[in-house]
Write a structure and sequence with these properties.
There is one protein chain. The chain is mainly α. The protein has 5 helices and no strands. It has helices spanning 2-15, 20-34, 39-68, 74-102, 108-130. Helix 2 packs across helix 5. It starts with a helix and ends in a 5-residue tail after the last helix.
Length: 135
């Protein structure tokens, strides 16, 4: 019985492994449908969107690194907090810059729908990750 449970557990883990390419493809498909992007709009939009996400990822990685630290004194704590705050500001500035660039490709209403769709997709992905048996 233990052996069969272990096999079931290993099999379940294999199906739940994160696949970045599939995640990206699913996200793009979801955004395209939710925001009603035409094939032409999607072809112009997603390379720029991917560029923004890769730049954001660098900043998020730095933030994650800083959050894992436990500074030894008050001054170092203040410094880490200030660095995290600055990274969050940089992320927002990056988003604002790319939003302006996106507006040269798609309308404001479609960009609004893209932002909503991206948030909805990520919420659903988190919910599915939290409850893998209820998919």
């Amino acid at each position: 019985m233990l052996l069969s449970m272990a096999a079931l557990h290993v099999d379940a883990q294999g199906h739940n492994r994160f696949n970045p390419a599939k995640f990206k493809a699913d996200l793009e498909k979801f955004i395209t449908v939710e925001a009603c992007l035409t094939p032409r709009e999607a072809a112009a939009f997603f390379p720029l969107y991917d560029e923004m996400n890769s730049k954001q990822r660098v900043l998020y990685d730095k933030m994650r690194e800083l959050r894992r630290m436990k500074p030894t004194d008050e001054e170092k704590c203040k410094k880490v907090i200030a660095e995290i705050d600055q990274l969050e500001i940089e992320i927002k500035q990056l988003q604002a810059n790319y939003h302006t660039r996106f507006l040269s490709i798609i309308s404001a209403s479609k960009l609004f729908d893209v932002i909503k769709a991206e948030n909805k997709f990520h919420r659903q992905a988190m919910r599915n990750a939290a409850n893998p048996w209820q998919r």
